[in-house]
Amino acid sequence: MLENKENDSVDENPKSLKEEKDTKEINDFEDLENAEDFLDTQDIKEKKKILKMLKNKFVTGVISGVAITLIITFGSAYLYSYATGRYFVFKANNKMHVGNEILDKKSMDKINELRTYMDLYYYKDYDVKKVKNKMYTGIVEGLGDKYSTYYTKEEYKAFKQESSGEYCGIGTHVTQDPSDKSIKILKVYDDSPASKGGLKEGDVIVKVNNKDVANQELAKVAQRLRGKADTKVSIEVFRASENRNISVELIRKNLELPSVSYQVLNNNIGYISISEFQDKTDEQFKAAIEALKKQGVQGFIFDVRSNPGGMLTSVVNMLNNILPKGIVVYTKDKYGNKEVARSDGKNKLEYPITVLINGDSASASEIFAGAIKDYKYGTIIGEKSFGKGIVQSIFKLENGDAIKITTARYYTPNGHYIHGKGIKPDVEVKFNVQNQTAEYDINKDNQVQKAIEVLNEKINGK
């Protein structure tokens, strides 16, 4: 993650896996045949036709060009037909719940009451836009889902930018601990402002520009880390190894950071590290495989340790370059609709494979490792993964803001739902941090060395 995304599998095109479904069957309308209160101008025959349609189909999402839209108001639902240009009205009752009322009359009265007190008694003028954004943020937080977030237009723009791997910032890969909201640096990129300023992997960001970031959403903190090129940003981190806080001042730079790096180990093993799943990660991954093949490797290590996740489409494309023909992952939404992603088997990787995971391997990383494990197409090595089995989708709002909400559960090819459970490695190896010096040395990484050992046994037919 480039100073932004949480441990997410994100579908930024929620309709991409739903092309075959533009309607859903529903059970929310239990007594539609007895609904009355249609506009008096509609005859009985047309009323029954509309009721039958409502009972059988429900159009979801905001999709331009669809035939009907359901608009919920306080106590009534209005069905508008684009084909006829007419509204049909029926009142909700105890048996007909179309949706939950959030801004009902009592809620609106309370909001107006709060604003009245603020207008009359708050000791200075306040920014109405900020207050509204906090209100929108609070509505989403009311879901009680730590993975659902409201983005302002600026935050959404930054999210999109960083998903591409191009942005202006300090050059770190960070994640957020869901339990205490602490923000930890997972990677400091070479020749970046962060590297030159002395920041290290494992540092916990405490303040940005002298403002405490405790309990703030990662996207909000990321926005503070970013800025225009050649501008200054002060950062305070806590370094556990020295048990002290360290403050640095950095100059932001335009950066294009790769999410895939690779090298040859032991003269015959191709090692590919994947830091997160961005828009272009699948392209970088394919190029890395081809480059290592040309160097004559006989086996592969795919390292997704401390990879917090990212784009669902990216990981699916990558698995299509590894696995034989078949399901790589499937999702189910609240209505029970199942959407399946498959590998066509045309580019399957016919080499011995190992995958490295740890407790910070989450979401898309677990989709990656889980599919390879279910197909018995490689050996999973390391420590149990994080355990995030849900997918978020991002919906852009009319004014450019956006909402990211959890929309589905995902399942591995064999139907395993790993949320809260994680993926257990085939070969459990706890990382021995004592082997490492101040600078990370891959030759002293006991998990990597175990992967080399396992691959050599397969290569030699043992």
From TrEMBL:
The Gene Ontology biological process terms listed for this entry are:
proteolysis; signal transduction
Q: Give the superkingdom in one word.
A: Bacteria
The record places domain PDZ at: 156-226
Q: Any transmembrane segments, and where?
A: 58-80
Q: Which InterPro entries does this UniProt record tie to the protein?
A: ClpP/crotonase-like_dom_sf, PDZ, PDZ_6, PDZ_sf, Peptidase_S41A, Tail-specific_protease
Q: Name one GO cellular component term.
A: outer membrane-bounded periplasmic space
What GO terms are given for molecular function?
endopeptidase activity; serine-type peptidase activity
Keywords per UniProt: Hydrolase, Membrane, Protease, Serine protease, Transmembrane, Transmembrane helix
Q: Where is this region: Disordered?
A: 1-24
Could you tell me which Pfam families the record lists for this protein? PDZ_6, Peptidase_S41
Keyword Aminoacyl-tRNA synthetase attributed: no
Q: Which family does it belong to?
A: Belongs to the peptidase S41A family.
Write the protein's name.
Carboxyl-terminal processing protease
Its source organism is Lachnobacterium bovis
